[in-house]
Write a structure and sequence with these properties.
The complex is a heterodimer of chains A (247) and B (262). Chain A has 247 residues and is of the alpha/beta class. Chain A is 40% helix and 25% strand. In chain A, strands 6-7-8-3-9-10 form a six-stranded mixed beta sheet, with helices on both faces. Chain A has a four-stranded antiparallel beta sheet with strand order 2-1-4-5, covered by helices on one side. In chain A, helix 3 (99-110) packs across helix 4 and helix 5 runs parallel beside helix 6. The longest helix of chain A has 17 residues, at 174-190. Chain B is mainly alpha-helical. Chain B has one domain: MetI-like fold, CATH 1.10.3720. Helices cover 81% and strands 2% of the residues of chain B. Chain B has ten helices and two strands. Chains A and B meet through helix 2 and helix 3 of A and helix 7 and helix 8 of B.
């Protein structure tokens, strides 16, 4: 997957409260499987992910995914979003629908599949993710880890061009975190490219091909994961890794 | 476990059926006592009930009219409530202020005052003389303001993350309302909505003030014809209870079910 970002700017608030979250951010990467966006909290990595996911309009700059520029109009942006799968920190499943219906909704409502075909595909994905026995349960009847796996199934079922994970394990306890990370690692083998914002440094080190270190709205470092963790170049990255790897 | 008389830990909520049974039992007991004590004191004989029985058609027609006008008002006020709730969420500031003004005006004045003002001043000026139409409209305007607040609360209770994930999978605005907002908001407000219907039925009794021949006015007419107060007004109270109690039980059951589902 190829990702080119040029002078991307995004601010929140107005007047005195105005905060520049992305500050003319540049990034050019090509990676086979996984790009990890790392960095301190509030540094802009989640916002960057949301812009790439088409959920947030940037104030300026371009994002080019595999040679195609992300549109700026809401209508075109919606079509672009349909080609992606996004997994959120707090799962965001629809609580009034079973796991099965959660997975089927985008297929029938957005991608125009017949109910039988959508069901067939949903069953297939849920089985693959080990959720077959939970298909008819509501999200409230599932554990956090299971919910996040259903959310991943929902994102996968539409066969997206790539997947975006926004801190997918931050709301989970360690055991469930392991369950979800295991699944993401398995997905890597299947070939759908992934963008990953995470605080799990050990996991990022293991799974990512490429790392972009983001702080204060800019990419301070971009390189292969092994190099980044072995020999970080900037003082900010060195300090960040010292802090998060201390324990 | 029971802590004390007025503080129960309520580990296991009582089923609405059991609670309903107790209510009926207590009502039955109290009614019987009233009948014996008051009836005895006033020297009431069965003759009084004979006179009332003679006017059963008046009661019956009034009761049916109360049900009818409450149902129509429920539909109308739901539409008004929905419109005002959407108005309060509008991006147009004039629409927002207008909706807020409506809600505050209606909720800030007593229903009786609204009936008097809207019927004798506004309806009169507009040449609207049909009491039934005027009564239904006034009741709908009154109830619509309360419903709009319930609907608004129901919509606002849906977390922003839900809308975000709906957007992320590519739903259109209309689809977001259809698949995400409406089903969830409806669950949220259904118990309150049912309760509001019970309120509507009770509030409709105030329409007797403008001479609308609903249940309460019917009882008043029977009373003035027979001079039998107790026998006129006891069926009146029971007639309302017969309508509101099942609704109240329904509302509780909905509350129970939805609480454990979500």
């Amino acid at each position: 997957m190829k990702l080119e970002i040029e002078k991307l700017t995004k601010s929140f608030g107005s007047g005195d409260q105005k905060q520049r979250v992305l500050d003319s951010l540049n990034l050019k990467v090509e990676f086979p499987h996984v790009l990890a966006l790392l960095g301190p909290s509030g540094g802009g990595k989640s916002t960057l992910l949301r812009v790439i996911a088409g959920l947030e309009q940037s104030d300026g700059g371009e994002v080019i995914v595999n040679g195609e520029s992300i549109p700026h109009q809401e209508r075109n942006l919606r079509n672009y979003r349909r080609s992606l799968g996004v997994v959120f920190q707090s799962f965001n499943l629809f609580p009034h629908m079973t796991a099965m219906c959660n997975v089927m909704l985008p297929l029938t409502a957005v991608h125009g599949l017949e109910t039988t075909e959508a069901r067939r595909r949903a069953v297939e994905v849920l089985e693959r993710l080990g959720l077959a026995e939970h298909a008819e349960k509501n999200p409230m009847q599932l554990s956090g880890g299971q919910r996040q796996r259903v959310a991943i199934a929902r994102a996968l079922a539409a066969r997206p061009q790539f997947l975006l994970f926004d801190e997918p394990t931050s709301a989970l306890d360690p055991e469930m975190t392991a369950e979800v990370l295991q699944l993401i690692a398995e997905l890597k083998e299947e070939g759908t490219p992934m963008l990953l914002v995470t605080h799990e440094m050990g996991f990022a080190r293991k799974i990512a091909d490429h790392v972009a270190f983001i702080s204060a709205g800019r990419v301070l470092e971009s390189g292969s994961a092994s190099e980044f963790f072995k020999t970080p170049q900037t003082t900010q990255a060195v300090r960040f890794l010292e802090k998060v790897l201390a324990y | 476990m029971r802590y004390s008389l007025f503080l129960d830990s309520r580990q296991k909520p009582t089923s609405p059926w059991v609670e309903g049974f107790w209510c009926v039992l207590i009502i039955g007991g109290v009614s019987l006592c009233c009948l014996l004590v008051m009836g005895g004191a006033a020297g009431i004989s069965l003759g009084g009930w004979d006179a009332i029985w003679h006017y059963r058609d008046v009661f019956w027609k009034g009761w049916l009219l109360t049900i009818f006008l409450s149902l129509v008002s429920l539909v109308l006020s739901s539409l008004i409530g929905l419109g005002i709730a959407l108005g309060r969420r509008s991006s147009v500031i004039a629409l927002r202020s207008l909706s807020l003004l409506y809600v505050e005006l209606v909720r800030g004045t007593p229903l009786l005052v609204q009936i008097l003002f809207l019927f004798y001043v506004v309806a009169n000026a507009m040449g609207l003389e049909d009491r039934l139409i005027a009564g239904v409209l006034i009741l709908s305007i009154f109830s619509g303001a309360y419903l709009s607040e319930m609907i608004r609360a129901g919509i606002e209770a849906i977390p922003a993350s839900q809308l975000e994930s709906a957007r992320a999978i590519g739903l259109t605005t209309l689809q977001i309302y259809r698949f995400v907002i409406v089903p969830q908001a409806l669950r949220q407000i259904l118990p309150a909505l049912t309760g509001q219907f019970a309120s509507l039925i009770k509030d409709s009794s105030l329409l007797s003030i403008i001479g609308l021949g609903e249940f309460t006015l019917a009882a008043q007419q029977v009373n003035s014809a027979t001079y039998r107060t107790f026998e006129s007004y006891l069926p009146l109270a029971l007639g309302y209870l017969v309508l509101t109690l099942p609704i109240s039980i329904c509302s509780r059951m909905l509350e129970h079910r939805l609480r454990y589902e979500t």
